[in-house]
Amino acid sequence: MTPRSDSSGIRRPSWLIGLRARLMVAFLLVTLGSGMAAAGLSYVSARNALLDESQVQFLTQLRDQVADVVSRTEPASGGLRTVAEIADRLNVEGGVVVYADTAVGDMTTLDRVPARLRTSVRQEGRLAFQRTVESGEPFLYAGTPVTSDNGTPTGIEVYAAVSLAPQQQRIDALARQAAIVLSVAAVAAVVVALVAARSVLRPVRALGLAAARLGAGDLTTRLPVRGNDELAGLVRGFNDAAAGLEDSVTRLRREEANSRRFVADVSHELRTPLSAMTAVTDTLDEEAARLGGDGAAAAGVLSTETHRLAELVENLIEISRFDAGSAELHLREIDARELVERAIARRGWSDAVELRTAPGTGRSAVALVADPRRLDVVVANLVGNAVTHGAEPITVTVSDVPAARGENEVTISVHDDGPGMPPEVQQNVFGRFYKADASRGRSDGSGLGMAIAWENVRLHGGRIDLSSSPGEGTRFTVRLPRDPRDRPGQGPGDTLDDGAGRS
């Protein structure tokens, strides 16, 4: 499993990234750790208690048996007879009596008695014991010297052995029970962790979904506050932040709407006097030849600026229609190639621009259902941008993408061989009032042409693709559905004109 790095740089397995997984692992580790510690302590205590009980019982029995035998014999005399008498009266499991090189009793016990235990009995002269494991079976060995009534050593030693297998079986049973309890505790810990994670993560998940809705634009998103814990405080903080964001966005939208309304109102108010001014400048243009000198130059400047102002006002009015959602399409069946050719010729760009058709299209008509006026504006803005800011050769290519390819669209591509656009310009080229060179004078245009072109294409259900690299020129590609009425979401304002239309 591929590990991932968190913000601290620590690499964690991907399955530990989720909060639910981490809560479950934490619960499980705590439960297993505490359970193993408790089980270990219980196991050690029970084991020691069982072994100590068996050991004390065995040693007490051996000591009492030896004392009883000694009281009924005369061990001080020693000899084989005394050893045999003690062995005969000794009633201890695995007992053997040793005197010098003579031994009477269970000889297998004598063979297995640890040398260390025999040395301890002889040197220390007191009861001693030792636990060993033979072939996987635990044994307890004990030995004690035999003394006379007055405490004098007789040289006689008594050894005995007992198997601790029954005690070990009980200890093993305790270990199995502890393992079972630990397993049950682990399962219970997982269940508790799931329940706890569910209760903890439910508000967190709800908070995440609410944040997603808020990010998607639903500024009315709020969450109910339950309790007074940390999560409730987090929810309250989210609600406060959402309310503040809603107030700010509402205020900004209101101000933006007021600004747009103001621009639209001013543009409409300027339209009438500008119409009169345009008529006057047209008259001045006709009389400019008789004015001569500075008068003719002044008349030319006045005419140029008046027409530019009129164009700006018309663009502002057009933008305001897009913002208000009142822009309408007056659709008609047209020849896209013919429309592009007429748009280029009308503006005097025929010598600077080469019109092409895609291979296979030829010079036949490229059928398209569109608003001729709006499409003319799109072509004029894109080609005008190439003429003004690009370099020759400038080519406009009209392509007819057949329905057999599944696209059924018409494309109009405008390419120039200019210096190209840097990435920051490409990101903003369709923005309103944007100029790639901030130092360009106002005579270079209003900065609304590309925005209007974008809105007109979008209104048709199409898009404009931009491809540009510094030093490699720029290409704008308009992609239009062959018939916008076939696209879902077209409004009732889209009408099909059966007349000549506007171009």
UniProtKB/TrEMBL annotation:
Keyword Secreted appears in the UniProt entry: no
Primary localization class, coarse: membrane
Positions of the Histidine kinase domain: 265-484
Gene Ontology CC annotations of this record: plasma membrane
HAMP domain location: 198-250
Keywords: Kinase, Membrane, Phosphoprotein, Transferase, Transmembrane, Transmembrane helix, Two-component regulatory system
InterPro entries to which the protein is assigned, alphabetical: HAMP_dom, HATPase_C_sf, HATPase_dom, His_kinase_dom, HisK_dim/P_dom, HisK_dim/P_sf, Sig_transdc_His_kin-like_C, TCS_sensor_his_kinase
Region (Disordered): 462-503
One GO MF term attached to the UniProt entry: phosphorelay sensor kinase activity
Matching Pfam families: HAMP, HATPase_c, HisKA
Protein name: histidine kinase
Entry's transmembrane regions: 21-44, 178-197
SMART domains for the chain: HAMP (SM00304), HATPase_c (SM00387), HisKA (SM00388)
Annotated localization: Cell membrane
Taxonomic source organism: Haloactinopolyspora alba
EC number(s) stated in the UniProt entry for this protein: 2.7.13.3
Recorded catalytic activity of this chain's protein: ATP + protein L-histidine = ADP + protein N-phospho-L-histidine
Enzyme class: transferase
